[in-house]
């Protein structure tokens, strides 16, 4: 039990640093190659912070631990909105551009709700994985095509954010490639440790894997998103803080569950659709009215998100 807990905790730490190295290396390499800051921010940063979930879910699926993969992906989305967005707004109220409400949030809701028809037969098969990855591809194309339409103030936010993120880079690709390779290796090692530790702890304590994935593993793999959103909020770059959460949530379902189900079909317990997925959809829907109140998430609204996260987690931890 001690070894399993150590593997779980150590894996979370290794994953955090691996994601940090991967994102920094990829962002600096992209900047040195002349990629626009907003493109890097919307793709490399948002999706790079979801790399821990990708590794853990893929390894869990490969090992036949589909409940752990589902729990991690859904739990991360729950934590991204309730814990990360709520905590970030408590520290500093977030002023958000209207396009986040009318563009990104509906896309996140669509991708989340898409799991209902795909999982209605209680399995995410390889064909379902292809559908999810096609949705992700469409989202990426949409992002790239809409870059030119972004407001100047949002473009400025991303330029300032990326300027700080790539500070210290001198256009030495080998150094950036080294960070990417080191980060990727750390992600694999950390992901393996988390899966082994989580499966063992769940088995010894008699806790369903989906619950371990929904709580401890989900919070651990969401640390990169927390760090990115907090830094962006403290720099008064609210659009990046919120965009990072929304983009990561889209990637967690369309990208991560898409890849996981391609690796090995993921069996879905009927209770997951009615409990875990419904909880994620509820807190995702809650974001829409909160963002519409003056295009800002105030401190008391951040507190609401945190309370909802704690309440939903407590409800999910109760025996079915």
Description:
The strands form 2 sheets. Strands 1-4 form a two-stranded antiparallel sheet. Strands 2-3 form a two-stranded antiparallel ribbon. The radius of gyration is 18 Å and the shape is globular. It contains 14 helices and 4 strands. It has 320 residues and is mainly alpha-helical. The chain has one domain (2-317): A middle domain of Talin 1. The two termini are 25 Å apart. The mean pLDDT is 81.
What does this entry show, briefly?
With 320 residues, this protein is mainly α. It is 82% helix and 2% strand.
Biggest sheet character? 2 strands, antiparallel
Q: What CATH architecture do you see?
A: Up-down Bundle
Name the average pLDDT: 81
Put simply, the count of helices is: 14
User: What structural category characterises the helix and strand content?
Assistant: mainly alpha
The side-by-side strand order for the widest beta sheet comes to 1-4
CATH topology: A middle domain of Talin 1
CATH superfamily: NCX, central ion-binding region
Question: What is the helix content?
Answer: over 70%
- Overall shape: it is globular
Q: What are the secondary-structure elements, in order, as H or E?
A: HHHHEHEHHHHHHEHHEH
CATH class: Mainly Alpha
Amount of beta strand: under 5%
Distance between the termini: 25 Å
In the predicted model, the low-confidence regions spanning at least 5 consecutive residues are none
Indicate the radius of gyration in whole angstroms: 18 Å
- Give the total of domains: 1
How many β-strand runs?
Answer: 4
């Amino acid at each position: 039990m001690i070894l399993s807990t150590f593997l779980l905790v150590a894996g979370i730490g290794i994953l955090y640093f691996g994601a940090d190295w991967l994102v920094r290396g990829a962002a600096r390499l992209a900047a040195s190659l002349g990629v626009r800051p907003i493109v890097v921010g919307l793709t490399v940063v948002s999706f790079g912070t979801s790399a821990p979930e990708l590794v853990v879910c893929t390894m869990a699926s490969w090992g036949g631990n589909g409940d752990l993969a589902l729990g991690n992906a859904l739990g991360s989305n729950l934590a991204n909105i309730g814990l990360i967005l709520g905590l970030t707004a408590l520290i500093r109220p977030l002023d958000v551009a209207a396009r986040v409400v009318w563009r990104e949030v509906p896309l996140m809701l669509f991708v989340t709700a898409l799991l209902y028809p795909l999982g209605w037969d209680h399995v995410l098969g390889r064909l379902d994985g292809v559908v999810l990855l096609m949705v992700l591809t469409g989202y990426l194309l949409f992002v790239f095509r809409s870059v030119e339409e972004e407001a100047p103030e949002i473009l400025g936010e991303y330029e300032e954010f990326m300027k700080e993120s790539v500070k210290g880079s001198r256009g030495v690709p080998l150094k950036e490639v080294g960070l990417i390779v080191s980060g990727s290796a750390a992600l694999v090692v950390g992901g393996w440790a988390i899966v082994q530790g989580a499966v063992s702890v769940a088995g010894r304590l008699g806790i369903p894997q989906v619950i371990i994935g929904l709580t401890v593993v989900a919070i651990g793999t969401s640390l990169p998103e927390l760090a990115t959103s907090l830094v962006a909020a403290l720099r008064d770059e609210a659009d990046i803080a919120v965009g990072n959460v929304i983009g990561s949530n889209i990637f967690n379902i369309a990208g991560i569950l898409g890849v996981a189900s391609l690796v090995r079909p993921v069996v879905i317990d009927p209770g997951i659709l009615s409990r875990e997925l419904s909880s994620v959809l509820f807190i995702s829907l809650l974001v829409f009215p909160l963002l519409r109140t003056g295009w800002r998430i105030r401190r008391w609204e951040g507190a609401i998100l945190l309370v909802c996260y704690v309440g939903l987690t407590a409800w999910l931890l109760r025996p079915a």
